[in-house]
Write a structure and sequence with these properties.
Layout: H1 2-25, H2 30-34, H3 37-55, H4 63-97, H5 107-113, E1 119-122, E2 126-129
Helix pairs in contact: 1-3, 3-4
């Protein structure tokens, strides 16, 4: 178990470093620019911290290893959560910048079906909600 955990941790860290090098060398490419390199680096930093977090419980239990396990796990999860929140805010800002944010863009479909100004409730499918 100890060997498996060590190998997985080392392989994960090596993959993170390889991806960081690939992103660094290709920062000028449109795909990387569109993905926001700063965001990608922060995700890689959080993964770089996260992989050893899975290795620490395999060590001999002492006060230091227990504290390190807790601190690394909290730091890893905080960085990962903040990065995902950052990306969600960026996506919201993109949609908020559009003129018709929140309105369904079904104009052609509605005109061809003869309906005018219905309200839609989306769950697993869209259905017409009548005004009461």
């Amino acid at each position: 178990m100890f060997t498996t955990g060590t190998v997985c941790t080392v392989v994960g860290i090596i993959l993170v470093v390889i991806f960081a090098i690939i992103i660094f060398k290709n920062e000028d490419r449109p795909v990387i620019k569109a993905s926001d390199p700063g965001y990608l680096y922060m995700i890689l930093v959080s993964l770089f911290i996260g992989f050893p977090t899975g290795f620490v419980p395999l060590l001999k239990p002492t006060e230091t290893t227990c504290t390190a396990e807790f601190c690394l796990a909290v730091l890893f999860l905080t960085l990962l959560s903040v990065n995902l929140l950052y990306k969600s805010v960026k996506v919201y800002e993109i949609f908020a910048a559009s003129k018709n944010f929140g309105k369904p863009k079904l104009g052609i479909l509605l005109k061809s079906s003869g309906q005018n100004n219905p309200e839609f409730v989306c769950t697993s499918h869209c259905r017409r909600v009548t005004r009461g």
